[in-house]
Design brief:
By secondary structure, this protein is mainly α. The protein has twelve helices and no strands. It is 58% helix and 0% strand. Helix 3 runs antiparallel to helix 4, helix 3 packs parallel to helix 8 and helix 6 runs parallel beside helix 7. The mean pLDDT is 92.
Length: 272
């Protein structure tokens, strides 16, 4: 019989344990398949895990925005790098879900009803934080007052990219082109691209702004990969059927691939 590791605490009747600290009981008991299909557990765990990663992404993005607004870029760089790696983890999750075949998904799809990842308020909050804002989608979340309030408050604040543009203009002694907080997606502005071009043409002089630009591009790069893998996974499993939430499914997701979060940072590359 194996003995316990020397020095290891074995009795937690009166102390906090690993499971207590992490709150594992409610987390591990939160999976409630609505069918007898074996693969429904995979579907639930994959999406719950993704929501946990998104919870962390929101935490990091909010902190990064505050750091950029305070002109404290070094911590912001670390946070933005972490968010990019979070999306790398989210990309890996699609690989697991793609082990499920169309036949296996069809066995429990009716149990989903009208529920859909399209309704994820955390995903919507991440998009709002980054600047891809569409206030008309707020209606999806009216039935959950806490989520709706969080999204409404976000729309009243400048996005992370707007805060970055304000910093960019201040450091280059230029007018602030970021505008007021809005309820529509950010659209490319020539004045913003001109400012980023100044940075890219002389990175040694503007090194922190140069690094900020690349951190933002890196983040969007991973975000785009996540969207692409989402489209591929959905097409592989359900083809071109409509989504459970009523969207056009793959057609809608492909349209989302055209969205640019930080357009000037991509367009400027063709001018260098």
């Amino acid at each position: 019989m194996s003995e316990a590791p020397e020095g290891a605490k074995m009795d937690f009747a009166g102390d906090m344990s690993y499971g207590d600290y992490l709150g594992l009981d409610p987390i591990l008991s939160a999976q409630h398949p609505r069918s007898d299909a074996h693969d429904e557990m995979l579907f639930i765990v994959q999406h719950q895990t993704s929501e946990l990663w998104m919870r962390l992404a929101i935490h990091e993005l909010e902190a990064a925005r505050a750091a950029i607004a305070a002109d404290d870029l070094q911590p912001a760089f670390k946070m933005l790098t972490r968010v990019a790696r979070i999306f790398e983890q989210l990309n890996g999750a699609w690989d697991v879900l793609r082990t499920m075949t169309p036949s296996e998904y069809t066995a429990f799809r009716p149990a989903l009803g009208n529920s859909s990842g399209f309704q994820s308020h955390q995903y919507r909050l991440i998009e709002y934080l980054l600047g891809n804002r569409n206030a008309s989608l707020m209606k999806l979340h009216e039935h959950r007052s806490e989520a709706h309030t969080a999204l409404r408050r976000e729309l009243e604040r400048p996005s992370l990219y707007q805060v970055a543009m304000t910093l960019l203009a201040r450091r280059l002694d230029a007018p602030d082109p970021s505008g007021a907080p809005g309820e529509t997606p950010w659209r490319a502005e020539a004045a913003v691209q001109d400012l980023w071009q100044r940075v890219y043409e002389d990175p040694r002089t503007h090194w922190e702004l140069y690094e900020l630009a690349e951190k933002l591009v890196d983040l969007e790069d991973y975000f785009r990969r996540w969207r692409f893998n989402h489209v591929t996974t959905v097409e592989r499993i359900i083809g071109f059927k409509r989504g459970t939430g009523g969207t056009s499914g793959v057609a809608y997701l492909r349209k989302m691939l055209e969205v640019e979060l930080f357009p000037e940072l991509w367009h400027v590359r063709g001018e260098l």
